[in-house]
Sequence to fold (469 residues):
Amino acid sequence: MRFTSLADGVTRQIESLGDSLSETFFEPVIRIGVTGMARAGKTVFITSLVANLLNRARMPQLTAQSEGRILAAYLQPQPDDTLPRFDYESHLAALTGPTPHWPDSTRSISELRISFRVRPSGLLGGISGPRVVHVDIVDYPGEWLLDLGLMETSYTEWSRQALERAEKRAMAADFLTTCRGATGLDDWQEPLAQGLARSYTAYLAQARAEGFSDVTPGRFLLPGDLEGSPVLTFAPLPPEDRPARKGLWREMERRFEAYKARVVKPFFRDHFARIDRQVVLVDALSAIHAGPAAVADLNQGMEAVLSAFRPGQNAWLSRLMLGKRVEKILFAATKADHLHHAQHARLTAIMESLVAGAASRADFAGARTGALSIAALRTTVEEVIRHDGQPLDAVRGRLADGRQVALYPGALPEDPTRITKGHLSGDHWLDEDYSIMNFSPAVISLKPGEGPPHIRLDKAAQFLIGDKL
Fold:
């Protein structure tokens, strides 16, 4: 194990040296990771970001664009031959076609490279001439980041934590019944292990559907080509003092350790450790709508995600990163178009409060962080409706069945801690008068040079890559 860790470290040092030489003497490369929990909008974010970087009429806050220094932008084959290409064209067609619909969500890791031909600013522009900057966008599920906590956790400890959470949730009842029936078994058959894993996976799927984010192991819900393999066929069991050497508990422990070694470690070694800048997308509005328990879970999920950006707190990750850390982290509350613009500042404040709470227990060691409320694809228009004779700032959008509806979701509080800490204080939750709708993409007609309509996507791009352009 020590030799393997040393070899990984040497490999990372060589890769880092190669990246530095390439950036210094050739063409700089920025690797941006995009992640978030389910329904946060990762696929839509990347699709709209790329479309608006290729056609920049809606990107005035991107300084290099407003100064006229971006001479060209174009897509290239991704540099990693082992990663699938992010299916940009299909996703864009889904969002902007004659019958627009949401594209399939992120289920695995993928990558896309967009390259810019840029004229440097200031005196360098007249001396050095245009240069090429490559931006590699890496899309991966946020559930995978949560697995980092497993790396230095034993099967016993993970089982104890997972079962404690399950005991508090009604949707875990069937799994807990199955689990109790599998306790203390010295003799077992593979169908029993498979049934136990299926029951646990079904519980995780329902927990995620109800807004909970602590759904480890992350690959259980996104198995890909590992589906049905022993490395994804385990579940937590109550700790046993003296488990039989060939009993079910020992086999579950063995598979848990194999999951860490064969699934979790390669992701952090091969992909996460190479990221320069990171976007964390958060569906804060859905959590607020779901109520205090969902917001409390979102707080915990944010802390778990942020643990991946403070390798000093995790000895295994610290050895892997060898001092390299993400330079910038952007936390973005998505679906801002579900609110009238008058409330966007309050949504941003809630996002900042969520980040501050989680970040107070993190050490970013110089990484610059930012928080925004955004809509990667604007699906609504604003209008004023009247209720009991009073004007209300509302939004109008299209539902999945084609109907156009106007929505006033209620007002977010001026004090963001009523949301981020309301579950602790026992506050009456937003007077039980807050709601959201699931809008579908609107039919749009794009002029030459325009990307899809958005809210503050240009500010997000400026934060992430503006200094490199």
Summary: The first helix runs from residue 2 to 25.
